[in-house]
Amino acid sequence: MLIDTHCHLDAAEFDADRDAVHAAALAGGVERIVVPAVAVDGFPKVKTAVERYAGCVAAYGIHPLRVMRARESGLAVLRDWLECEQPVAVGEIGLDFHVTDGDPARQEFFFVEQLKLAREFGLPVLLHVRRAIDRILGHLRRIRVAGGIAHAFNGSRQQADEFIKLGFKLGFGGAMTFSGSTRIRRLAAELPLAAIVLETDAPDIPPAWLGGGRNSPAELPRIARVLADLRSLPADEVAAQCAAASRAVLPRL
Fold first, then answer.
1. Total Cβ atoms within 10 A of residue 105
2. SS3 63
3. 158: which of 120, 140, 193, 194 lies 20 to 30 Å off by Cα?
4. CA torsion sign, 204 to 209 to 213 to 218?
5. pLDDT averaged over consecutive 10-residue blocks of the chain (253 residues)?
6. Is the pTM of this model over 0.90?
């Protein structure tokens, strides 16, 4: 079984051919797709997608790059959706200090409040982490949640080990397929396989062979083969172990 732990199937980039994109993923052996929301006004579209497409499951949250347009009342809306919709996780949430026009304090406010909701509902979290790993780890040590996934992980081995100690898995996808991504590829080869989950982040982070084109969940089997080659293991074994890690960290899968 292949599980795409992070795919924005609800994104506008798929509006013209979403049925075909989903069908291609299923045909390639992708049996589960986690669809994380990024904003409150997108929750209904995520819900529609996961109800329409077999194997898809939802996560609900407010992305750090959307908090500038978000209202604090959106946190109450999120709470209602977590209670009523039974998602697999709270996400996509986190911090992004790469952007220059963001408000770090506002990002941290929304992140902390969403961690509190995850703790309240006993849910794991799907983390967006960009130039903010240590800050996020600090919050996670204060507000303990039921683990989760550090999506598109791009930190050090020491930081990876800290996430693992806190019950997190690390998401690897398209960035790992570039020969120049030496640190990511080394981590993918050396970290415990039980700590790694696969993802596409489609339509974003396309693998090397797409030449910057639109990513899709159908690319996951080839991404899994890259991981298998880096670890000198059979692709089926890698897929099975990454799927087991996904189910361990996201019990509602």
1. 7
2. coil
3. 120
4. negative
5. 97 98 98 98 98 98 94 97 97 92 91 98 97 96 98 97 98 98 98 98 98 97 98 97 98 97
6. yes
Q: Are the beta carbons of 184 and 172 closer than 8 angstroms?
A: yes
Residue ranges per structural domain of the chain: 2-249
| Strand, coil or helix: 20 | helix
How is residue 126 written in tokens?
A: 């799907």
Please name the residue that has the structure tokens 């347009």: 69
- Rounded-to-integer distance, Cα 162 and Cα 101, Å: 29
Place of tokens 């570039």: 178
Q: Which residues contact 64 (CB under 8 A, 6 or more apart)?
A: 93, 94, 95, 96, 102, 107, 110, 111, 128
**Residues belonging to the chain:** 253
Sheet (strand 2-4) strand order: 2-4, 30-36, 56-60, 89-96, 125-130, 148-151, 168-172, 196-198
Contact 199, 7 (CB under 8 A): yes
DSSP annotation of 64 reads: G
Q: CATH number of the domain at 2-249, out of 3.40.50.620, 3.40.980.10, 1.20.120.450, 3.20.20.140?
A: 3.20.20.140
Cis bond before residue 36 (omega within 30° of 0): no
